[in-house]
Amino acid sequence: MTGSLFKGNFWSSDILSSIGYETIIQHLNNGRKNCKEFEDFLKERASIEEKYGKDLLSLSRKKPCGQSETNTLKRALDVFKLQIDSVAQSHIQLAQTLREEARKMEEFREKQKLQRKKTELIMDAAHKQKSLQFKKTMDAKKNYEQKCRDKDEAEQAVHRSANVVNPKQQEKLFVKLATSKTAVEDSDKAYMLHINTLDKIREEWQSEHIKACEVFETQECERINFFRNALWLHMNQLSQQCVTSDNMYEEVRKSLEMCSIEKDIEYFVNQRKTGQTPPAPIMYENFYCPQKNAAPPGKATGSELARRRPLPVPKSLPDDPDYSLLDNYSLIYQ
User: Fold this and answer.
1) 16 near 134, Cβ under 8 Å?
2) What is residue 96's three-state secondary structure?
3) Which residues contact 323 (CB under 8 A, 6 or more apart)?
4) Which of 127, 135, 156, 305 has the greatest number of CB atoms lying within 10 Å of its CB?
């Protein structure tokens, strides 16, 4: 910490000016505002992290994700849901941590505010006293200067009346001159007294200004250091969140490495198989000459299907009128 830059660089040659002090105060106010902005940022980031964590938690617990999978892939999915749940919880925990950091920033701001208030009250009183005494001193100076002018006029009047033979008139002029000289002496003493008082007050104000500069510079060094460390810690917390999440994701990757396509296929077959014999070809059956000992439907062999018996030869010739008779029913119109 420097501790000497403020007190050597914030002065003004005008005794009534407080530009240096006001410049420092404005800078400190801006710094306090910056801390408040970061505090609000942490609170809003905490709300975002909490909402994300809760939404992710709801997604993990309520949304189906491969619920009908079996065997090794099912175990990997169980690990996946468990780790996503853990990631969600870690974001909710991060939100709580960020709110705690925001609270620390608020406490730091309020602490510096109280420390500054004491110094500001002293400096405000010193500025007010200095300005008031300066006004009194200037009024005393004006009165002194006016009394001097009055004395000069009285002296000139006495010189002009040197040839006047009226003794009463000369006596009045001498009395006025004596009175003006006394007034000058009195006003001169009052003026000098105010000058000395103003100088004493100026020295006291100057001493308080130096003390205030040292206090404010120390505070600003502390504020910058605190703000920097808070921001650094915030980055570490976010990095740790990434590491924590990646460790959880790594558990999912490890479980996926244990997945076996062959085992999952074999497991499905063993659990859901319906039989090992496929259906046989369907055998041809002649309507007019059903085969004896025909295989039941669906059980005919390939050799039986390949054999065809010849069609029966009709007893009547094609040109015989009875050719189309069937059980004395003719298909030929008579």
Assistant:
1) yes
2) helix
3) 314, 316, 317
4) 127
